[in-house]
Amino acid sequence: MLNRGLRLCLVVLLVGLSLLAVTVVRVNSVPRLMNFGNEEEGATCGWVLYSDFLMFNRDFSVNIRANNTVSVYILDEAAIKQWNTAKIVNAAWAYEDVVGDVFSEQANGRGGYAVLVYLPEDSVTAIKVVLTFSGFEKDLLIASLTIVSVSILSFVTLVIINQRNRSLINTNSKCVNTA
After folding, report:
1. Based on C-alpha coordinates, what's the Rg of the chain?
2. Which pLDDT tens digit goes with each residue over 85-129?
3. What is the spatial distance between Cα 88 and Cα 25, in angstroms, rounded to a whole number?
């Protein structure tokens, strides 16, 4: 039974180390590039929604470059629904009346997000928004370190119990042999 426990601890340790390796590999990700524009007359003037990207709880930067003053909003899942139903902007992050800048932020949790951009209707506007994520995904890091720690602690505990049982068996067999 102890051998099964030791094997289980080893499997759990390997799972935890694998998760930790994935977490380390994902420290830096490929930047997410979004282009918006109203180059064609009447094409995408006003509000433009670029949706369907996942965000994880780690640091990120928003790099905005435009040839005109624009407003950029990052919406979480609830705000996306609110925008789609009532056209109300309830942004997690808002960058209003910018031409270009880089903003450093920190996401609080995992989830689906969208970028909502307002392009002025009175002129040709082109905008480039680049999201770059960096740092550890804190929830994956905590989970992997917890799994590794618990498996090591369990492994050591089972080894100590196994050693004690062996020493008790050896002591009992010496007592039986001398009688």
Report:
1. 28
2. 999 999 999 999 999 899 988 887 788 888 888 887 777 788 888
3. 38
